[in-house]
Each structure stands twice: as C-alpha cells, then as structure tokens.
Design brief:
By secondary structure, the chain is of the alpha+beta class. The chain folds into three domains: about 1-90, no CATH class; about 135-185; about 185-225, no CATH class. It contains eight helices and seven strands. The strands form three sheets. Strands 2-4-3 form a three-stranded antiparallel beta sheet. A hairpin with a 7-residue loop joins strand 3 and strand 4. The longest helix has 27 residues, at about 145-170. The model is unreliable at about 1-25 (pLDDT under 50).
C-alpha cells in the first residue's frame, strides 16, 4: 500500500517565509568613510550572500539586489518570491511516502498513518528506559545471561504498567508523562498517628499528607485508598 500526504504551507522552512509580507527588506552600508574603514569590499559581500543562499532551495525563493560599489554606497535589498515559493512547495515540500506490507484487509490507510505517527511514542519509551530514575535498565547488578533476561523482563513490564497508567490518566483528562505521573504519585505519603489513652492499646489513625488537586484525582482514579493498610 502506498500512502501519500501533502503538508500545508506551515511545513515550509522559515527561510522561505516572507517576513515582510511581500515588501522588500533592505540593508545599507556605513554612512561615513570613517565608519566604513575595515569593511568588506563588494566582491566579498557578494560571496557571503552567495554562501547564505547556498543551502538547498533558498536561492530559488530569496531575491537579492546589491547596489553600490564602495562600503559607504552599498545597499542590499532582499525579499521572498512568493510565486517561486508556491512552485517549490508544489514540487518538493510537504510530501511523504509510506510503504507497508499490510494490505487493505489488514489495515486502512488511516490506520497505517496513525501507526506511523505513533512511532514517536515508541521512541519516547526507549528514551524513558535510559532514565536513571524511572523504569530504567541501569544500573543493572547482574552478570549471568538468565539474570539479565529477567531484569529486562521486569523493566519492560514496569514500563508497560506505567504506560497503562498514563493511558488511564489521559482518558480521565489528565495529560501527563510517565515521569510526571510517577512523581505525583510518589509525593502522596501516608502518616500513621498513634494516640495512647489512659489504658489499653494505643489507637491508630491513618492520615495522608497534604496533596494537590492533581494528586487527589490520581488517588481516586487508581483507587489507592484500597491498598492502604487497615488498622
């Protein structure tokens, strides 16, 4: 299956946008001979302009005019050729071709595009597993092959559970990363207060530390109260 999509004009790099809305921009050289001492000659300035316009496609949309011969006379005007920009967009920009071995009976075009775009989440998970604080592979204090396999297994399971929790939070309207979610949950702490009466065993009272609204929503969403010890 072949999928072809075309992006909007926003995909065009900033160098190909017209900051002056079609009006030419200008630059002038020094206004006095003393100010122009040590300035570059016209030939060197032309070489620098050519170097700036050298990257792919830039010279096709940027129009420049350099007037004058001496540093005090030099005047540079430049603007974006919008018609050339439109032609360039039609020719090159914003096109992406996706190849897949999935036929129409296995996945629609929309599903293929969605799966392709979801690769960013997969790459983010690989980066997450390098995080030394949250569901990380390292440090790994194992040396045998079997122990390393087990270590990798429970790291992947931990990431899977964390991702499922992020998904549940997303469905509840809370948009958080794995680290943000786990950090918020880690700050929910429990305090056990013991009150000794005049006789008998001390009475225990379980209390939570002060939590913010987001932590309260997570507390209720995951039913954390059911896992608290009963006294």
């Amino acid at each position: 299956m072949l999928t072809l999509k075309r992006a909007s004009r926003k995909a065009v790099p900033g160098l190909c946008r017209d900051p002056g809305q079609g009006h030419p921009l200008s630059w002038r050289g020094p206004s006095s001979p003393s100010e122009g001492q040590g300035r570059k000659a016209r030939e060197k300035l032309e070489a620098e302009i050519a170097h700036i316009l050298a990257p792919r496609c830039v010279s096709r949309v940027i129009r420049t005019t350099l007037a004058g011969n001496t540093p005090t006379e030099l005047r540079l005007s430049f603007h974006v050729d919008n018609s050339a920009r439109d032609a360039l967009e039609e020719e090159l920009f914003g096109k992406q071709i996706l190849f897949t071995d999935k036929g129409p009976e296995y996945a629609s075009t929309a599903q293929i595009v969605a799966e392709y775009r979801s690769q960013e989440a997969v790459e983010a998970d690989f980066r997450q597993m390098k995080d030394p604080r949250v569901v990380s592979f390292s440090p790994m204090f194992h040396f045998s092959e079997q122990e390393i396999h087990v270590h990798v297994l429970y790291c992947v399971l931990a990431l899977l559970v964390a991702r499922l929790m992020v998904r549940e939070a997303e469905h509840a309207g809370m948009h958080m990363s794995v680290r943000e979610l786990l950090d918020s949950l880690a700050d929910i702490q429990e305090t056990l207060m013991l009150h000794q009466g005049e006789r008998g065993r001390p009475r225990a009272r379980r209390m939570l530390t002060e939590i913010d609204p987001t932590q309260q929503d997570l507390y209720d969403l995951f039913g954390i109260g059911t896992y608290a010890p009963k006294w």
